Structure prediction request, 281 residues.
Amino acid sequence: MTNQNTHNVGLPFLKMHGLGNDFVIVDARKADNPITPAVAKAIGSRFFGVGFDQLAVLRETDDADIAVDFWNSDGSTADACGNASRCVARLVMEETGDDSITLQTGFGLLPVVRVDADNFSVNMGQPQLTWDTVPLARDVDLNALPIEGEPGAAGMGNPHCVFVVDDAEAVDLPKIGPVMEHHELYPERTNVEFINIINRNHIRMRVWERGGMITLACGSGACGAVVVAHRKGLTDRNVQVDLDGGTLHIDWREDGVWMTGPTALVFSGELSAEFLSSIDG
Prediction:
């Protein structure tokens, strides 16, 4: 069935990124939400659509400055996306002139503050550290999962499986990532991070994101990686995380896991009515 909501009109959007972790942002505050799983998947195609790591849909809410829904490129949803949250916060702050706002997400209310002209910090909340909230399929040791390599698990609004390795650069992500994403221990699939420890305040990380892709950065993944590394006794709570796309700073404080990094606005555009009317679903 053709999507009737967008049959005769185009759909404006923005393209942004945080360290190469790229997003399409759709503002649905003054209109009906046009996004369905089929529409999200179509926009997410890097060959037939626009392409994104996540899609962020902005909505009005009485509980925060703005509400945000996150979609993966395979048409599934996520409760949180750290880098996209910082990008959305930048847009709202530029509209309002404020230096701090609160986002309503599936993972709860997330405070965001402007650090300087380029950098923003978001409090991603406390990690989920019980087997049923990550979630896992059964009760196991979250610091040493019964998987070869004994990765750690944490939830940050989405599930994470974090391997500590000697050299993250040497990991065959395209081979190992999809296998671990669909591991039977993760009933909702998982993001997969590979980290090597440089020192107690510095790690290197590469990531395979749930939804079937290698991404240049993952904000919630960096938070989950630091949580796991600290719980394993390998790092402190304040850690620099070097990703393929650049550097994030993670600080696990009493009030939550804070992530700081830059944002970039790439371009604005409009999805054509022709494209939208061709989507089935």
About this structure: The first helix runs from residue 37 to 44. The chain has a mean pLDDT of 94.
